[in-house]
Structures are given as C-alpha cells and as structure tokens.
Amino acid sequence: MQSRTLILKYVVTLGLLLLANWLLWSGHFESPFLIGLGVLSCLGCLFLGVRMQIIDEEGAPAQLGIRPFTHYAPWLIKEIAVSNWEVAKIVMSPRMPLKRNLILVNAKQQTPLGRVIYANSITLTPGTVSVEMLGDKVRVHALSLKEAADEMSSDMSDRVCRLEGSRPSSDESRKDV
Amino acid sequence: MFGGEIYETIVWLISGGLLISGSIFAIIGGIGICRLPEFFSRMHGAGLTDTMGAGLILAGLMVQAGLSLVTFKLVIILFFVLVTSPSSCHALARSAIAHGLKPQLDVPNSDNQNSNQTSGGE
C-alpha cells in the first residue's frame, strides 16, 4: 500500500474531476444549496474510495495527465476509422477474403495500466481482437492481413509506451512470423 | 434571418449525414455478425457496430446539440462506450478460449513456436 503523501495527488485529481463531473452533469450552477449537496456527495465518494484503497495510479491515473485525450485519442480515432473501412469492405465483398490468424504481439509497456490501454486499443480497432494476455505478450486474433495488423500494432505499442512515459524500444516489437 | 436558415440547414445536413453513415456502419456490423463464419470472426463484426456505428451516431447528435451540456454528456457516453466495449469483447474472447473453443484459422498458427525467440534473426 502506498503512503499517504503519494496518494494525495490522486485524491485531489479525482476530487476535482468528480466535482466537475457533478456540475456538468447536473447543470446546477446557481443554487448554493444544490452545489453544497454536490460537494458533499463528491467528498463522500472520495472518502469511500480512500477507505477501499482503490485510489492509486490505476484508479485515478493522474500521472497520464491530459495526454491520452490530446495526443493518443486523435490518432486512435483515425486508426479506428481506417480499419473500420477495411473490415466493412471485407464484410460486404461477395467472397469475403478472410485470412484469419492468431499472432503474438509484444506489449513492451512497463505498467499494467499501459498494457491494458494497449490491449484495449488493439480490440478497439476492428479486425483485431486481443484474446489473451500472456505476461508481457498479447495474443491477437486478426481477421485478415497479418502484416498490416502486425505493423499497426507495433506503431500503436510505441505510442502507448510514450503515453505512459517509458521509452519505446524499436527492435523488439517486430515479429517475423 | 436568411443566414440563420442557411446555418441551420448546414447543421442538419452534417448531422444527418453523420447519423446515416453511422447507421450504415451499424447495419454492416450486423451483416458481418451474420455472414462471418465462426465465433472469433463474428466478434470483429460486433466491433464495427461498437466503434464506427456508435461513434458516428453520437457525433451526429453532438452536431445537432451544438455547444451545450448535452454535447458534454454525449462525449462522456462516447468515452464510456469506447472504454467498455473492448473490455467486454476481450472478456468474451478470453472465456471462449478458456472453455476450449479453438478459433478456425486460414493462416497456420505459428506463434507458439516463435514466441520464445527474439526477432533478431530476421
């Protein structure tokens, strides 16, 4: 378990996020009574979270900052759109040129959170689904074109590495299967 | 007055286009679920509906709502859909593997032999 000073950062970030969430979802900006109730409920949630010891670098990933939304999400959305188009073409083509395969991709991320982001990104792009996590490797089921899937995953892996702050090593990721 | 009408028309056209293309992708995803041969392939069809279908439909609704609290809520919905759908997809695939369902492959499965080697010999 972490010391109290260490989780303070995550507690403060989570508290601010909860408060912003409450304000934006409720839309009550004027009545002090309602806002007071909102603050109270946020504090209650924080108290429960601290008591359950789930506020850490996984429960409230403050160390990632805003980079997932500014740097990673736009690129991921572009990838999703491209591979959506590819899979849609396969599904709608009369003969369905499938080349189903299972590949093993290295997940070089150092933290479990990084690996989860990586595996979820693989699943999120249509045509590839992460089937199993095997230590620092991910088994991926791909619908077609093993090379394309592999290449894409390597680029994606480097990006997730940069996101979590570790240095991507470029050689390890290529699999010559 | 006239400019406002043109603006409204453009907004309606953009959001309508997004909604229709999102619906098309959702339908293609459904067709994929029916057409693709076995369980593991069908998950890819479901992914089509989850990402592009839901994303484009929500984007169309955002355009129509303009800059407001409704748009913020739609963004949050999109965020949660994008976070939860791969998790459920992975859970499905993992439990299928765990219960012994083997995926049919068109390309022979070569990862087991190579998984312990580094790729230095390329």
TrEMBL record, chain A:
<feature type="region of interest" description="Disordered">
    <location>
        <begin position="151"/>
        <end position="177"/>
    </location>
</feature>
<feature type="transmembrane region" description="Helical">
    <location>
        <begin position="31"/>
        <end position="50"/>
    </location>
</feature>
<keyword id="KW-0472">Membrane</keyword>
<comment type="similarity">
    <text>Belongs to the CPA3 antiporters (TC 2.A.63) subunit E family.</text>
</comment>
<keyword id="KW-1133">Transmembrane helix</keyword>
<dbReference type="GO" id="GO:0005886">
    <property type="term" value="C:plasma membrane"/>
</dbReference>
<protein>
    <submittedName>
        <fullName>Putative monovalent cation/H+ antiporter subunit E</fullName>
    </submittedName>
</protein>
<dbReference type="InterPro" id="IPR002758">
    <property type="entry name" value="Cation_antiport_E"/>
</dbReference>
<dbReference type="GO" id="GO:0008324">
    <property type="term" value="F:monoatomic cation transmembrane transporter activity"/>
</dbReference>
<feature type="transmembrane region" description="Helical">
    <location>
        <begin position="7"/>
        <end position="25"/>
    </location>
</feature>
<keyword id="KW-1003">Cell membrane</keyword>
<feature type="compositionally biased region" description="Basic and acidic residues">
    <location>
        <begin position="156"/>
        <end position="177"/>
    </location>
</feature>
<keyword id="KW-0812">Transmembrane</keyword>
<dbReference type="Pfam" id="PF01899">
    <property type="entry name" value="MNHE"/>
</dbReference>
Automatic annotation (TrEMBL), chain B:
<dbReference type="InterPro" id="IPR005133">
    <property type="entry name" value="PhaG_MnhG_YufB"/>
</dbReference>
<keyword id="KW-0812">Transmembrane</keyword>
<protein>
    <submittedName>
        <fullName>Na(+)/H(+) antiporter subunit G1</fullName>
    </submittedName>
</protein>
<feature type="region of interest" description="Disordered">
    <location>
        <begin position="103"/>
        <end position="122"/>
    </location>
</feature>
<dbReference type="Pfam" id="PF03334">
    <property type="entry name" value="PhaG_MnhG_YufB"/>
</dbReference>
<feature type="compositionally biased region" description="Polar residues">
    <location>
        <begin position="107"/>
        <end position="122"/>
    </location>
</feature>
<keyword id="KW-1133">Transmembrane helix</keyword>
<feature type="transmembrane region" description="Helical">
    <location>
        <begin position="55"/>
        <end position="82"/>
    </location>
</feature>
<dbReference type="GO" id="GO:0015385">
    <property type="term" value="F:sodium:proton antiporter activity"/>
</dbReference>
<keyword id="KW-0472">Membrane</keyword>
<feature type="transmembrane region" description="Helical">
    <location>
        <begin position="12"/>
        <end position="34"/>
    </location>
</feature>
